[in-house]
Amino acid sequence: MKFNLRFLFIALFICTISIAQNKGTISGVLTDKDMNNAALPFANVLVKGTNISVNTDVDGKYSLSVNPGNYTLIFSFLGYESVEAPVAVKANETVTVNQGLSSGSYTLKDVVVQASTGSKQKESALLLEQKNAVDIKQSIGAQELSRKGVSDVAAAVSKTTGITKQEGSGNIFVRGLGDRYNSTTMNGLPIPSNDPEKKNINLEIFSTDILEYVSIDKVYSSKLYGDFAGGNVDIISKDYKGNGYFKIEMGSNVNTNALAEKDFKLQRGISSFGFDNPSIPNNPLTQYNYNTLQMDGKNPIAGSLGISGGKSFNVGDGGKLSFFATANFSNEYNSIRNATAKGGVNGAGVANKDFYSYTDMGYQTNSTGLLNVGYKINSDNKVSFNTVYINTSSQSKEEYAGYIVDLANNGNGLIRRFNYEKNSLWINQLLGDHKLSDRSKLNWAASYNIIDGSMPDRAQNTFRNEPNGYVLSSISRPDNHRYFQKLKEDELAGNLSVDYKFNKNSDDEYKGKFTLGASGRIKNRNFEASQFNFLSQPGYTNTIVDPNNLDLFYNETNLNNGYFNISTFRGNSQVSNALDPQTYDGKQTIFGGYLNTEYKFNPKLTAVLGLRAESIVQNVDWNTQLGDVGSDELSKVAFLPSLTMKYELNEKQNLRLGFSKTYTLPQFKERALFVYEEVLQVKVGNPYLYESDDYNLDLKWEMFPTSDELISFTAFGKYILNPMNEVTIASSSNDISYINTGDYGYVAGAEVEYRKMLFNFDEVNAKKLSAGINASYLHTSQELNADKVDRETDYQVVFTNTKSQFTGASDLLLNADLSYLAEWQNDRSLNTTIAYSYFSDRINAIGTNGRGDLVDKAFGSLDFIAKSKLNKNLGLDFVVKNILDPKINRVQENASGDVNVLSYKKGLGLSFKLNYTF
Fold first, then answer.
1. Quick one: average pLDDT of 280-285?
2. CA contacts within 13 A on the Cβ side of 115
3. N or C: which end of the chain has fewer CB within 10 A?
4. What DSSP letter does each residue of 338-356 carry, written as one string?
């Protein structure tokens, strides 16, 4: 028996060896016809009628081992037309079958837009681009954003290494550097800010529905404007491929805090769609024509509705015309409940405003529309047009109850602020790509953008709760006011570049490339604000009022009877220019030219040496409540060298180096003598503020074990001359201003990223578990020099410390996610992700006059995302955000101990979304 088994085993082994030796091999390369025959990675090659298949590698290559015979190969890729090719295979021979794929007449019926608008939405394709590029950059595509339940660009970029989002806003910090050090573009063209306080637009207003991917440059290259130190966020809009599809989706969302409010109320008279734009009423000083101060109850259940579609047409010989459009509306309710807040805390920990109760109820809307038209004239020429319109609104009711020095010393004060903001942005872009010859290529782009931002009719009232009821404060005129703000900005920008390849080698490859380019932008801003103060007159200062029905006191009859009067910062109706608003106007022109030289010294080493020259002129004129009419000009000519080097250690590993010099400009409002008042702080501009110069160094190692895996480590440093900060200046009201606070500052840190496929449970029907983690450690330090401030400005600052971290910089940043994907027959699938993010303590404002630094304390956030396809047409998504619901704290780190100045919880966010694709 043993002999028979041994004989049988030997026979089977010999037979197996014989069969293996007789097999043939099919190999080749797949290319993308729509992308000038570039390699097409991660496409599928299947032997028809069998289970034998393989995916192409990062270079588009594949290889199959089969028995001798005649076969048919099927080449396929999502969003592209499948192709069948016959092949005859002989024993022990290799047959080469190369194939190009095109979107051609492909009809998109069972694939959502993420699969159809180009491979750069795929995580694997973006990793390939990162691997092959000489520039050092990170990208996050629509596929990854969908998997992580990300709905806006601000949340998208915060998922990448070294970037965090400021709590309660769309502002981001890149490697510890905030708004002033970063820039935002769309398809490589600048876009304006919708906030007079900020340089960059609020990234939360950009829905991920309009983008293909987001690229983050944290290393400077000369094609970018020189106003760069942290990073540049480039939003790449969708570029449709395919024959036609139409998709509709609707959803609902709730915030648990808002849902728990027994009496969720907002100011009456504001439309729920967010397009209202109230203006200053007629005769605002002599007649009472203001909107009501009464409130309406709301049902805090929000929703969303969106449609999208695309279609491509063949035009002539090799031409293609493509259309893609999307429109959506979404809203959201939120609430901060049972919170506490303090303002004006001194070094001994005593606050001039100490609120035992702080409540903020809010409602936001976002209406977005995008149209993309692309015309591929032929394989060498393409032009495209993008127009994007975004309208956002934010309505809130803030209430602060507690102690207010000299007004409510018994802790019986109440401040209520109704705020409504509306911003509309219109982006128009025309772009062209032209292959002039095998050696040269021309790229050009132009844009015209308009921003219209307004804060129409902010209302604030201040009360004391006396034994008989509430009375309005009559100590200071601004305690009770209506505020109207308008911001209009337009910007014209353009880019032009020509590539020329040189030094062809024996393999018909060019070793070098020159890029000569120019870019320019002209930005104009007009800002105006009017505040109407309501002061109770003698005899009516103790009138009992109903805070929930102030229309009984503030009305036309009581104004005519002298209960109160209305004035601006210039005075009342008796002053001829009383109605003149506060204004500032800004104009900024930047023109630059650059020359990049890219050269491949050998198969492993490539370097890009760049030099950019820029002329910058920034003018600001103002007429503000400080009684000042003035102007100022900042001009600069900058020469900005940059060097990027890439060394390929092997096929899967790269070593990269980046060095550059850049600068950082102050913003219009920071240099205008304009006062902006919040409930807890007052800000004023500084016309003596000037630019910083920045020196940047990066060293990065990266490894790509497979097509969808990455390991990377980066060390970086930045040295900044004359850094700018927001600090409290010596003034009666502890105003905050913008100051060059010292001669130098620096940032040093390290980043690590790891993406790993943990398990692949089923090769045929995808069932896999993957994970990703990225973390960064930062050390920042800057000199604080009071003598420099006194010498260079009209302000005085007494710093509590002689050194400080940069504001917004966390020592530790962490993002992690775990995803499970399962696909079944009949187009059914389930993708679930758990995502976690964390940041350690970071400085919100630098301490002065014996006060410690204001510090935002560390916290972590956990989200759960589930996205399913019930069949080829119907999809269902479920998302839970902020599962841990941590308490968010801001403290002032005084020498005597920390003082908690702000504490609240955001609540959980739950959303459902149903989508149907035709």
1. 94
2. 18
3. N
4. EEEEEES--TTS--SEEEE
